[in-house]
């Protein structure tokens, strides 16, 4: 029962903050340069990271911040829930996120996303989506933005393993930037398909950048997957399935 109450309190703050951001900041944001726009709208993500900890009794154990490069990179992380999409925005701003285009249709939330130049994909057209990721991903990196690509493509519940997609590794190799691997167990605290949150330790591991110079995307992807899955074996409370 206490988790239900905590979750209700969390969502009260979640939607109140979204409404305030929409009323106070969205009318201003389009007139700012991208960097200023990002700093302004990213205040909501900073709030959510802190509010989730306070309202839901979650403790953060984040290791590896010293591995975050100063220049642009391709961030690749396992995808379990909404929390990591929020945290990764504040971990290395500014970052361009690869996401499904349906998210841009949500009032306030989607309007804010549009202003941050995401790479929005129509997942019903996979060939076109892949071309879009490769073209726009390299272009965003060239402007100094980092790019966030979830190699699993969609949310995957804790304890479930899905094939990794190499689009992020291809983008990194073409742009000549490193891949920054991130592993976490956020789905154990913030279930992807249920609104009730769970207290406990949310662990994040940020790995050393994986260099792409002179390497193929398949080689880079193999390193990314091995590192993320190895970390998940250590930090997950839900047992991981055997390697493919």
UniProtKB/TrEMBL annotation:
<keyword id="KW-0812">Transmembrane</keyword>
<protein>
    <submittedName>
        <fullName>Lysophospholipid acyltransferase family protein</fullName>
    </submittedName>
</protein>
<comment type="pathway">
    <text>Lipid metabolism.</text>
</comment>
<dbReference type="InterPro" id="IPR002123">
    <property type="entry name" value="Plipid/glycerol_acylTrfase"/>
</dbReference>
<keyword id="KW-0472">Membrane</keyword>
<keyword id="KW-1133">Transmembrane helix</keyword>
<keyword id="KW-0012">Acyltransferase</keyword>
<feature type="domain" description="Phospholipid/glycerol acyltransferase">
    <location>
        <begin position="73"/>
        <end position="187"/>
    </location>
</feature>
<keyword id="KW-0808">Transferase</keyword>
<dbReference type="GO" id="GO:0016746">
    <property type="term" value="F:acyltransferase activity"/>
</dbReference>
<feature type="transmembrane region" description="Helical">
    <location>
        <begin position="12"/>
        <end position="32"/>
    </location>
</feature>
<dbReference type="Pfam" id="PF01553">
    <property type="entry name" value="Acyltransferase"/>
</dbReference>
């Amino acid at each position: 029962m206490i988790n239900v109450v905590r979750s209700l309190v969390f969502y009260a703050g979640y939607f109140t903050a979204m409404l305030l951001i929409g009323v106070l900041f969205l009318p201003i944001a389009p007139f700012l340069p991208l960097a200023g726009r990002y700093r302004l709208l990213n205040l909501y993500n900073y709030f959510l990271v802190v509010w989730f900890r306070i309202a839901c009794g979650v403790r953060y154990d984040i290791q590896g911040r010293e591995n975050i490069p100063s220049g642009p990179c391709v961030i690749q992380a396992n995808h379990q829930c909404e929390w990591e999409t929020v945290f990764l925005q504040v971990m290395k701003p500014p970052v361009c996120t690869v996401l499904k285009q349906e998210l841009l249709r949500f009032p306030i939330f989607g309007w804010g996303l549009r202003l941050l130049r995401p790479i929005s994909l129509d997942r019903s057209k996979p060939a076109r989506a892949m071309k879009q990721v490769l073209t726009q991903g390299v272009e965003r990196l060239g402007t100094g933005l980092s790019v966030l690509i979830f190699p699993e493509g969609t949310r995957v519940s804790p304890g479930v393993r899905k094939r990794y997609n190499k689009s992020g590794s291809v983008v990194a190799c073409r742009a000549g930037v490193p891949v920054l691997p991130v592993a976490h167990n956020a789905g154990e605290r913030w279930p992807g398909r249920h609104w009730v949150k769970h207290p406990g330790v949310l662990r994040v591991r940020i790995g050393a950048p994986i260099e792409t110079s002179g390497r193929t995307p398949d080689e880079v992807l193999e390193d990314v997957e091995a590192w993320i899955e190895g970390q998940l074996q250590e930090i997950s409370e839900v047992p991981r399935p055997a390697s493919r």
